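Recap quiz, item 2
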Amino acid sequence: MNAQTKKIKILIAKPGLDGHDVGAKVVVRALIEAGFEVIYTGLRKSPEEIALAARDADVDVIGLSILSGSHLPICHDMKSEIEKYQLASKVWVIGGNIPKEDHDALLEIGVEGVFNTGSKLDDIIAFIREKVGERAS
Amino acid sequence: MNEQVKVDVRWNESGIEIKPLYTAEDVAATRIEEAGIPDGVGLPGQYPFTRGIHDMMYRKRPWTMRQYTGFGNAEDTNKRFKYLIETGNTGLNVAFDLPTQCGFDSDDPMAAGEVGRVGMAIDTLKDMEIAFEGIDIENVTVSLTINGTAAIMIAMYLAMAEKRGFDLKKMRGTCQNDILKEYVGRGTWIYPVDPSVRLVADTMEYCASEAPLYSPVSVCGYHIRESGATPVEEMAYGFCIARAYFDQVLKRGLDIDDFAYRMSFNFNIFGQLFEQICKFRAGRRLWAKIVKNEFGARNPKSMWLRMIAGGGGSGLTIEQPENNIVRGSYYALISALSGAQTVALCCYDEAYTIPSEKAQRISTRTMQILIEEMGMTDTVDPLAGSHYVETLTNQMESEMVRIMKEVDDDGGILKLISEGKIQSHVSKQAHDHQKDLEDGSFRKVGVNCFEIEQEDHAVEMHPYKREDADKQVERLNKVKADRDDAAVTLALDNLRAAANGSDNMMPAIMEAVKAYASVGEMNAVLVDVFGKYKEPVIF
């Protein structure tokens, strides 16, 4: 067990124009309940707005929720913003309707965890604890 | 020996306890009395329409089969429309891409990667003309699933019909145009709440005089349910929203019977079979009472809960997707037993992708099997008189009344949505539901029981073609090059003046549309005048 002295801070964001936010909000609640500090951006944020929010709040994790199918172009843009604002040390995860065949491409871009529709909340929580723990140690 | 059999206690999703046995006593104990309604239920085609809004229902005409579709550009969608009509669909239900829904042109940087992805891209009237080319829109009724830019899309649709020589006075069709539910779920809002509701009222007022058979609004409990509402909340919130639109139109001096008869509704069909059926029967009766008693309508048609029942996306699973075909057929059965006017049935591959032609065909065939083989159109409201069904119908209605009163007591639906309270309430329930799914207390086949090792490529993915988006931008550029710029500028100035004032904005939108102003150009004017909605985020 890695004793966390500081609460893990997570940004959950909805990039692009996709309005499906049921999943994002469910995840936000689950993360708060798990003891994390969570900031939810609301809908329709550009990758740059998300990067700035992550930088300003100094979060440990950036989580994107995308159900419109445009995860690849959005993550390409997000990658540039992450580099531009030097956020590479953050754990980057995405969730939503992400076909299996796109998972490798996303991991290559720099996403660390892909959580498809149907993922278990406990798995998401455990993944975040583990990854942030690795960074801290 | 008279040993009592011990049974477990069960509730439906609406929080009503379900007993192992119902008798006539239960019906009597839950009956909601109103003078002039024999046995509290009445006959089909008669107030309060518990059993259906028409006397003969499907015996006269089966429900309209209206599958939801649209992708790529107008040509692609036109082809799919024709395919659906060929397979036996009797109506069309148009999906728009997100830039169109959010007010961006296809060449806007905000549209990058999204053009034509989840629906058809529409920039100008030209696209609307292409999308419906060769389709007999007088007999195949068209439903436009759009909200944030609905006033513009209605104008484009009517302008297209007019150009083709149709008489707008006879033009049927529906637009979703329920912006209030977009703030709760689905999320394609643009402007703040007040001007958005004003736009909805503008379309209702405009259509009441110019296109009196067109349904400019379809109030959606559907998406509120998808966002986490219970079945009774879905109806209750939907009715609160419909009342809010009515109030706006009445303020303009119209009589309730001038427009209420064109109000349409959209409800969800996933969940337990009897609970869903009773939801529709109870909702139909309650809505009739509201319109008659609260609003003083005299025309029975104003009291009709005309509805599209459909989708059921949240009931489908990523796991063992073929099981979704089975779920879909139960959902279709629910619709048929509920007296829906129109059904848009979900497709088994929806948890993965935009439905394939094959998946669309299976959904259409599911409904055709009910009509052709199962005798589902033979008799009206066949479950009426069942002790269970009548009791549950009564109980569901009472619950809806209670929830509507709660909303009113808390300040009304406009206030609760503006403050994000409804959003927070339903999203909490969605979270609780997810936990119930994960700990197995809410059973879902293939998800938390009867699981199997998942296959990798269970469904065929809908391809996204960049070339379609490029073609769309090319066409927009060509339209812009060919149009009369002075006419566009003048029309946009007139739109700005209308938005700044208090007159109905629809005539100005019609003028702009006919001058081939783009969605993005018109939306920019309205954003400039109204500003943008700021989402309240509360947990």
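Chain A has a mean pLDDT of 94.
The domain at 9-136 of chain A is CATH 3.40.50.280 (Rossmann fold).
End of item.
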